[in-house]
Specification:
Helix 6 runs antiparallel to helix 8 and helix 7 packs antiparallel against helix 9. The protein folds into two domains: about 220 residues, D-Maltodextrin-Binding Protein, domain 2 (3-Layer(aba) Sandwich), CATH 3.40.190; about 230 residues, Dipeptide-binding Protein, domain 3 (Roll), CATH 3.10.105.10. It is about 25% helix and about 25% strand. The protein is built from 13 helices and 23 strands. The longest helix has 17 residues. The chain is an alpha+beta fold. The strands form seven sheets. Strands 13, 14, 15, 18, 19, 20 and 21 form a seven-stranded mixed sheet that branches. A four-stranded mixed sheet has the order 3-12-11-10, with helices on one face. It is globular, with a radius of gyration of 27 Å.
Length: about 525
Amino acid sequence: MKKTVCALLCAILCFSFASCKKNPGGSSSDIAPEASEKIKYEEINLLYYSGDSFNPYTAKTKHNRQLARLLYDSLLKYDNNYNPVYCLAQSASISGKTCRVTLKSANFTDGSAVTPDDVVYSYNLAKNSNTIYAAELYEVASVSVEGNAVIFNLSNVDLSFLNLLDFPIIKAGTDGKKNSDGVEIAPVGCGRYYVSENPNILLRNENYFGKKGEISKITLINAPDDISASHYVEVGNTDIYYADESVANIARMSGKRADVNLNNFVYIGVNGADAVLSNSNMRYAISSAIDRTEICHSAYFDNAVPATGYYNPKFNVTNAVQSLKTVADLQITVENLSKIGYNNLDKGYYCDSNGKHPTFSLLVNSDNTSRVAAANLIANGCRAAGIEINVVSKPYEQYKKALEAGAFQLYLGEIRVLPNMDLSSLVIPGGSAAYGVVAPVSDDEAKTPLKTVCGEMIESYREGKVKHSDLAGTFLTEMPQIPVCYRQGILFYTSAIESGVAPSASDVFLNLENYKIK
């Protein structure tokens, strides 16, 4: 009789375990099967750091800054092709130097309404923070409120200003409070999730003004450093992981991946004071000798896309006028060298009438392995096209000093272009990335510096006279730098997520409410 009872109990237990299924993060789920016997995974696991805040303006770790996107919505964000995505904004319009944003009807998680005053409060936090949001708001001269609208008064015309309105909105006055451990308590937000009483659990905001997704609970796993984060990723303890490092040894998880189009522009800087490089035909010749596709594959491990011009190739506004080839075209190189007198091929190099061939040094930061690999590929491609380029690798501090002193001919650099596609730092003398850019001088005795052609076009854009497509054409014609590629990030995610994943640089969890779970 005892054996029969034991057998019966075992059968019941087995049946009970068979009717449950673990969620992608490994914890058990007590959700009952649907009629189709398909079990919904309503929980996922993500990484965070318990010693850091979720305040989007003070958080120091990348995991917590990313999670803040789930807790706090913005007026707008932008998608993976840099198109504006409306969030708290019901409508937004730009007229001259004024941007008007009208708010949707939305509430914070404490039930209070999101008001224009909360937007202004958050704007001030963003503007004065040590975050990318502060850099993105550089054009805002002042902010005011008109009814249910927020008015941004700009210092110049910017047709892509809406992409800069992705700063998170928090409830005014709820930031700055700390718990007993001295960690700042998350301010009140209006996002898709909120921090529960258990600080390592995020719960779906059932009062969210937008669509509510299938994922109702997010369990957070404490990863205080890169080593622990890599361990959790590799053993499958997290269900979504984002990486934007351009190295081969980034932590990778099994499952699926989605590319995130970054606005990180890799280019060859040119010293315009060099007599040979100041000729645009030489710059065209070098550009045509570069196999951008191979650089993306071998130097950046397919985490980059070849540049077709100065603007991100995923930015559809300028695609029609960006025409750089993504593979080497030696015929174009030969034609451009011929235009400046390098007509004779001798020992693999094109020489002038005096038997001299073009020889340049390419400076690169030795601390960045991907850039060193790219520099070597560039040098090899140019040598194959009859142009001698020698790579000079220096540690970052020495590399930077050489740039600042103008002690280079060519250098390989990278800048993060803001999502409004402002390229001014590359071409306006004195800009943060305008090393080697030389403006022409006037003929008067004072030799007053003039603006570069590209700099003048940017001023025309800021006056509302030209568009991005006009800028794209001028940049390619002048070619003060030589475009190479735009880097990409990677969002890894579990195979249990069937579809709906559409991250962007604005929010790696963009569209999480549309995730379809097995």
